[in-house]
Structure formats: C-alpha cells, structure tokens
Amino acid sequence: MGFLARIGSSFRRTGAFFGDVVSELKKVRWPNRKELTSYTIVVIVTVVLLAVFFYIVDLGISRLIDLILGT
Known about the structure:
single chain; mainly alpha
C-alpha cells in the first residue's frame, strides 16, 4: 500500500470515527435542569466532605509526626 493510499485510508477512518461519535451522542439521554442541579449539588457536597475529611486526616498525621519527632 502506497503512502498516499495510507493517508487516504487514515482520513476515511477518521471521518467514520467522527460519524460514529455523532451517532452515539444522539443516543445519549441528557439530564434536564432539575436533574442537573441535583447532580451538581451532590458533587459539590461530596467534594466538600472529602476535603474536610482529608484536612482532618492530614492534621492528625501532622500532629502525630510532631509528637514522634518531639518538635
């Protein structure tokens, strides 16, 4: 297979890929405004809770290391 034939084949496969992407995106069920708002709130609350948890764990480990090292 020649160089130009490989390039042409590559472009055809790329076009087919994007065609498949568009067809799959048409099958997606997008959330409505109410669902999107509730999902966003869940994500924000989860992130805040995890941040507080890791802050407390980090603070505890830091204090433990300070006790061990005697500083």
